[in-house]
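Need a sequence for this fold. Nothing fancy.
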């Protein structure tokens, strides 16, 4: 998993920046706020989440690990893809997003393009407790958030490979419950092995 990139900013677009790492330019999708903090030619570091699809590998960049964790948590909610997750963080800063989820504020969540009332309610139901755990400051929840990020990425990869959503989620959950692996590639391999036996 590519968890961060660091290097000179080659270019900045409306929705992405290109950062050179070891002679290779990585296109990283990011929020307008993140992009506004970058300057062409300056060195930058972004914490990243790699989303694997059948036809693409896409990097999403964030200024801090906290925003990246929230991005990963958003992806665990049914119906929330990477673009809506990024749009959520573009509209609501991490603290505001946590507050909206903790307080059950659907009005604030529906400000995000692509999230209606039902979607907002689903976000609240599925993430309220997880976001509360993230804000408690105890070491355990951070591991949980990392696991959620791995879960989201591996599930996305399996969906891209044509597996049904429910089967993919169950396979990933079974792998994480069994050995608590945090390495995306290892979890993906084990989930694929499990799904292959069922076919």
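Here you go.
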């Amino acid at each position: 998993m590519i968890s961060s990139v660091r290097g000179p900013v080659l270019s900045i677009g409306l929705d992405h920046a290109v950062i050179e790492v070891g002679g290779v330019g990585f296109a990283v999708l990011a929020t307008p706020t993140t992009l506004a903090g970058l300057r062409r030619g300056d060195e930058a570091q972004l914490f990243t989440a790699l989303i694997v699809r059948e036809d693409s590998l896409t990097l999403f960049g964030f200024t801090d690990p906290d925003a990246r964790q929230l991005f990963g948590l958003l992806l665990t909610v049914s119906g929330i893809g990477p673009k809506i997750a990024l749009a959520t963080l573009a509209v609501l800063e991490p603290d505001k997003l946590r507050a909206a989820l903790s307080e059950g504020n659907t009005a604030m969540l529906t400000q995000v393009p692509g999230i209606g009332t039902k979607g907002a309610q689903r976000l609240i139901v599925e993430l309220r407790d997880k976001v509360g755990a993230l804000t408690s400051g105890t070491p355990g929840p951070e591991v949980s958030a990392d696991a959620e990020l791995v879960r989201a990425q591996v599930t996305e990869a399996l969906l891209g490979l044509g597996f049904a959503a429910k089967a993919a989620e169950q396979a990933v959950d079974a792998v994480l419950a069994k050995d608590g692996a945090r390495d995306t590639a290892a979890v993906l391999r084990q989930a694929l092995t499990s799904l292959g036996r069922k076919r």
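For context: The domain at 4-62 is CATH 2.40.50.140 (OB fold (Dihydrolipoamide Acetyltransferase, E2P)).
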